[in-house]
Structures are given as C-alpha cells and as structure tokens.
Amino acid sequence: MFEINIEKFKESMLSILKEIEHTDTHCITRLLNIIDKTFIGAKSYRFYTFLNTLKELGHTIDDNSKVVGFCIEVLQTALIISDDIIDNSEIRRGHPCWYKLVGLNAHKDAIFLLLLIKKILKKYSLNSKGYTNLLKVYENVLLKTILGELHDVLPTQCTDFENIKKVYSIQNYKTMVIAKTAYYTIYLPIYMAYIYSDKVPPKNLLPFSEIMGIFMQFKDDYLNFFPEKTKKTSNDLQECKLTWYLSHLVEESKNENDKILILQYFQTKDENIVLPFIKKRLELFEEESEVFLSQARRYLDEETRKIYKFCIELFENK
C-alpha cells in the first residue's frame, strides 16, 4: 500500500498560504491543527484509489502526485466537518468532532479547505496537459456532492403516508447517494488519475462508480448501527435520515397498520417503532452486499480490470 506523507502535504499548504496576502501566523497554525486533528484515524480510501489507478496506468508515483491524491482526502475532511455540525454528531474516527473543539467556526474551516484544494491542484498538476480538466472535474464533482448533501436533509411535512413515500423512496435514496457519495469517493479519484496521466477515462466509469457508491453508503448505513466498529456517533433513526433501511421500510409498508406505524414514527421520531424491522433487515447484509458487488464486477474489462478490482476489494473490506 502507498505511504501517506501528511507532512509533505502540510508543506504544500504552507507554500500556498505564503503566496496569499494577509495570511498571519494564527491562520497557518489553525490550518495545520485542522489537518492534525481531523486526519487521525482516516482510512484514506480515495487517496489509495487515486494512486493505484496512476500505478496501473504506468504513471510515476512521486511527491507531487501524492499531494494531488491527498487533496481528495481533504475534500472528504471538509465535507465531514460540515456534516458533523448539521448532524450534531459527537464523535468522528474515535475522537471529538472538530466543531466540538472549536465551535461553529469549524464551518469556515471547511469552506477554507475546499477553496485551498483548488489552489493546490492548480500548483501541483501544472505538468499535466489536462490540468484545466482536472480543476473542472473537481468543481463539478464538488457541486454534485453538495447537491447530494442538500438532498440528504430535504425537509418533508409528515402529514400523511403518501407524502412520506414520495420522499423516502428507494429511488430517491439512490439518487441522493450517487450525488453525495459516488462522485467524490469513486468517480473523482479514478477520473483524476486518468486526467493526471493524460489518458482518456473509461466510458463505463460512471455506472461503475454509481454502483460502488451505493454499495459504500449501504455499508455505512449498516455500520451506523454498530458504533463500536465505526468509532463515530450516528443519529440516523432519531433524525429520520434517508437511509437504505428506512427507504425499504417505507416502500415495503403496504397494509394500513404498517402505514400508521410509519406515520407515528415520523411524527414522534421514536426509533423503537421501526427497530424490529431494521434488525430483521440487518440480517440480510451479506446477501445484499453480494448483489452490489456482483453488479460492480460486471464492469471489469481488459482496460479497467486491475483498477476496478482494487477499488472493489478496498471498499469490500472497509
């Protein structure tokens, strides 16, 4: 596996900051502190996916390419800093969430990181012929991801079952997940590696990314019921979040008694009403996982086999 050199990335950030007017010592210290505190326990799957794709494409893995790959992990950090504020989370990666340490100013930190990524990408990918496309795909994916996050907190008036069914559908769940997870987790690191290597990304990258993104979120939804494994807190049921399990519960509720219970749950947010169904559905995890992975394996061809296989195994063992 590739070595992550956080110190090298911090050096790249410092060099960028020194080029910006009115950047004081306090700002630099705070930024370094964000990286130190929020990357503890990070799995860095996007970083590994980017570098493995470069390797399979025959591109040299050097410090510059590692910095570019690490930018995707910084994107992940910025997104979870904001997510934790919105979700009122307590623990992330086994440690207090960043906003619990610095307050709501953490949201400004997230915005700053997103803007800093563009500066770093521009500086460290100038030798790539397609560096303008690199910046373009980053901006497009960021926009799609944020739209997906907005979908995640889409409000609904829980006045009747039919209204709930429209919002909490399986199709809505998949649409949300593709936007908020698949694009920046699977699509972006692989696409960026192709562009960075001056090669044309495969045509089946998007559908492969969509399946893997849904699988990844499905797995996260499952693991959220086991905080001892994830080392993070989850309020999905208390907040009526659109998840794999809740969307199936709503869509599979056919008789009037089920509909009454669903409506009662959404009005009271009492998770005990739906837990019996959830626990039964959790037993299908292995079976449902294999369905997703089988679909993803269909996209393995002569060009992408090693790249996609690495990605599948990485997230299967997550």
Automatic annotation (TrEMBL):
<dbReference type="GO" id="GO:0004161">
    <property type="term" value="F:dimethylallyltranstransferase activity"/>
</dbReference>
<comment type="similarity">
    <text>Belongs to the FPP/GGPP synthase family.</text>
</comment>
<dbReference type="InterPro" id="IPR033749">
    <property type="entry name" value="Polyprenyl_synt_CS"/>
</dbReference>
<keyword id="KW-0808">Transferase</keyword>
<dbReference type="GO" id="GO:0004337">
    <property type="term" value="F:(2E,6E)-farnesyl diphosphate synthase activity"/>
</dbReference>
<dbReference type="GO" id="GO:0046872">
    <property type="term" value="F:metal ion binding"/>
</dbReference>
<dbReference type="InterPro" id="IPR008949">
    <property type="entry name" value="Isoprenoid_synthase_dom_sf"/>
</dbReference>
<keyword id="KW-0479">Metal-binding</keyword>
<dbReference type="GO" id="GO:0005737">
    <property type="term" value="C:cytoplasm"/>
</dbReference>
<protein>
    <submittedName>
        <fullName>Farnesyl pyrophosphate synthetase</fullName>
    </submittedName>
</protein>
<dbReference type="InterPro" id="IPR000092">
    <property type="entry name" value="Polyprenyl_synt"/>
</dbReference>
<dbReference type="InterPro" id="IPR039702">
    <property type="entry name" value="FPS1-like"/>
</dbReference>
<keyword id="KW-0460">Magnesium</keyword>
<dbReference type="Pfam" id="PF00348">
    <property type="entry name" value="polyprenyl_synt"/>
</dbReference>
<dbReference type="GO" id="GO:0045337">
    <property type="term" value="P:farnesyl diphosphate biosynthetic process"/>
</dbReference>
